[in-house]
Design a protein that fits this description.
CATH superfamily of one domain: Trypsin-like serine proteases
Structural class: alpha+beta
Helix content: 10-25%
Mean pLDDT: 79
Distance between the termini: 27 Å
Largest sheet: 7 strands, antiparallel
Strand content: 35-45%
Order of helices and strands: HEEEEEHHEEEHEEEEEEEEEEEHH
Oligomer: single chain
Number of helices: 6
CATH topology of one domain: Thrombin, subunit H
Low-confidence stretches: 1-19, 68-87
């Protein structure tokens, strides 16, 4: 259905003058001429005049921008805030084009994996951008307000532990077991971060590895394979892996061999070995993209979520027009 819709739009636009338009070349040799509105890691929105097409990245072979579009994009990026825009909150580009060994990747991304501590316990997490935003599990910080994060900064080839205590809860989703935090210490440097990959592109049998703090043993690395991509537990789908996961790993990253996060380590079967489970990274992207709906309201500690007001009938009628 998608290919048919895109092809129809491409054939129609091929007859029009496309002066100053952006050009998207697709896998099926179709071409879309229009103005790119938004570029995301997984899709591109294009204004073709009478409608807007949302094109998946995996269908795009090449993008050619007009000079006007390049200029407009540069101006928009210069004016946009660096950390609060949803597109800038995480990085989705591939860390490496080719697969690498776990040994090589651990040296690069070990600094981006953190330990999350609360008075009631500890877990793991991973940093999304240089401003100190990080992901962990909701159950790691549940009912806690005093949160500290231990980061292992790399210096002269060695990792040095640094504890940050000014940690703010930005958003959390109990049902998806995800939480977004931010380190706000005044002396905090620019942080190393990970890239978010695509768990849908993974295949059963692909090698993966986890970094975390099982039982408080920080920076522990475990390797395994992806056992299945669609293990259903309590109504949710999980990635099942043979990489060892234990209490303390919760909230840490599950990497592929390209250095991309494909899941968030979450739980294991108590009576069994090699039965670990991770939340697919697609759920993380959805959570981050809709984080306003899960925003934590520090001014109202009795209600951890600040919900947006529902649209009124008047606004709904205007929107439908």
């Amino acid at each position: 259905m998608f290919n048919r819709v895109i092809l129809l739009g491409a054939l129609t636009l091929a007859e029009l003058s496309a002066v100053g338009a952006d050009v998207l070349q697709l896998k099926d040799q179709a071409v879309i001429n229009g103005r790119i509105l938004v570029e995301k890691p997984d899709q591109v929105a294009v204004d073709i005049g009478y409608t807007v097409l949302v094109v998946p990245r995996n269908q795009i072979v090449a993008i050619t921008r007009s000079d006007a579009a390049k200029s407009g994009k540069d101006e928009a990026e210069a004016a946009a805030p660096s950390t609060e825009t949803k597109s800038a909150l995480f990085h989705g580009a591939a860390a490496y084009k080719q697969e690498r060994s776990v040994r090589e990747l651990v040296k690069v991304f070990g600094e981006s994996v953190v330990q999350v501590r609360t008075p009631g316990g500890l877990g793991s997490g991973f940093i999304l951008n240089e401003e100190g935003y990080l992901i962990t599990n909701f159950h790691v910080i549940e009912s806690e307000t005093q949160i500290s994060v231990e980061v292992y900064h790399q210096k002269d080839g060695q990792f040095e532990r640094k504890t940050y205590k000014e940690v703010r809860i930005v958003a959390m989703n109990k049902f998806a077991d995800l939480a977004l935090l931010r380190i706000e210490d005044k002396d905090a440097p620019k942080f190393s971060y990970v890239a978010l990959g695509d768990s849908d592109a993974m295949a059963v049998g692909d090698r993966v590895f986890a970094i975390g703090s099982p039982l408080g043993l920080e920076r522990t690395v475990t390797e395994g394979i992806l056992s299945t991509k669609t293990r259903q537990l309590q109504g949710e789908l999980y990635l099942q892996t043979t990489a060892q996961i234990n209490p303390g790993n919760s909230g840490g990253p599950l990497f592929n061999l390209r250095g991309e996060v494909v899941g968030v380590t979450n739980m294991k079967m108590t009576f069994g070995e090699g039965l670990g489970f991770a939340i697919p990274v697609e759920a993380v992207k959805f959570f981050l993209g809709h984080r306003d709906a899960f925003a934590y309201d520090n001014d109202n500690p009795s209600s951890p979520y600040r919900y947006l007001e529902p649209p009124s009938r008047v606004n709904k009628a205007v929107a439908e027009k």
